[in-house]
Amino acid sequence: MGNMKEKIKYVSIDLFFKKGYFATSVSDIARGSGIQKASMYYHYPSKEELLFSILKSTMDDVTAYLKNSISGIRNVEEQMRTAVQSHVRFHLDRQKENFIANSELRGLTQDHYRIIVKKRYEYERIFQNIIQKGGEQGIFVKDDVKILSYAILTLCTSGASWFKPTGRLTVDEIAAIYEKFIINGLKQGQVWSGAT
Amino acid sequence: MGNMKEKIKYVSIDLFFKKGYFATSVSDIARGSGIQKASMYYHYPSKEELLFSILKSTMDDVTAYLKNSISGIRNVEEQMRTAVQSHVRFHLDRQKENFIANSELRGLTQDHYRIIVKKRYEYERIFQNIIQKGGEQGIFVKDDVKILSYAILTLCTSGASWFKPTGRLTVDEIAAIYEKFIINGLKQGQVWSGAT
DNA sequence: GTCTATAATAAGATAGAC
DNA sequence: GTCTATCTTATTATAGAC
């Protein structure tokens, strides 16, 4: 809390999550941070740069977290299980930022938009590679890799839109359900075995 | 196009989808509709009422479409297959409205918000009932019914955020992939059979 | 049913004092 | 590094003519 720049970011994440980026004014952010709105411009050159700063660090962190989680795992099914766990955990632990990173891209300038979309693309590629390998090894279905990756990612990401830390289920329980559902979905079920 | 009220709605759906509700001004809507912004207020009492009108008709239509699709089907697995197909098709056919219905709820007044959320709850209940029955009959996993329903719904709904009518895959192909993935996910895979 | 004109307000951002 | 004061512009919405 000693760092006002961090405090502004923290307050903004909360407000952007609750009200949305466009519905949040610089006055709102300043009020939440305990400063005047002009003071915000000392720390960030504009409201859009503040949004970009949030999205950038979120994307960098989620990718680092995923890479660290799956590093050293050779078995493809185990890679996918771990990747799903990693994705779910990060998205539930840092729920607000992730929600913003998935809903407020339209608030960015074109240049900033491109940077974030590129980062997201790299993140998705990690999942697509695992699905691809699983298909080649015959342990996963051979459906369209991109569609499957979007399906898996949005499925878990959506948790960030309804999850309540004080709710009925823990992060562990939710992660377990998703992991199971996705692995079942990716593997050949009895009904489909041999018929692709 | 003879009906200006409908044209305003049509134009607004397009703009809310592309720019978002808060980032779209009444001037933008008027410009797109070929009228002056004051004229919009003859058709809708406010910008918020216009948003509400869009969300209300979307929710009513999607529920009617689903109910009609699954009516008469007794087999639970077949019900889920049909429900998934129905959900995917409606969301891809009326992509923009559905995207708005899932992302712009914060633009509503409290009263309108409650009405829409209640409609969405009723829609989700239909899926939850099918999952529940499938669990009781032993053909689906017995995991948390709500979580599974959210997973299934957001998975398909997310299609509305990346689908391009001119893209690589047709609605039929996407629906088939999702149906397969979800049924596989809901059924006991080899790995999990007997271990719940 | 659509127009012009305008009210009332709030927005993002800057200047310059301290 | 934070303040007060202010500029400029855009916003939602209304009044009243046609």
TrEMBL record, chains A, B:
Keywords: DNA-binding. The keyword DNA-binding applies. InterPro entries: Homeodomain-like_sf, HTH-type_Tx_Regulator, HTH_TetR, KstR2_TetR_C, Tet_transcr_reg_TetR-rel_C_sf. Residues 25-44 bind DNA. This is HTH domain-containing protein, TetR-type. One of its GO terms (molecular function) is DNA binding. It comes from the Bacteria. Residues 2-62 form the HTH tetR-type domain. The lineage of its organism: Bacteria, Pseudomonadati, Thermodesulfobacteriota, Desulfobacteria, Desulfobacterales.
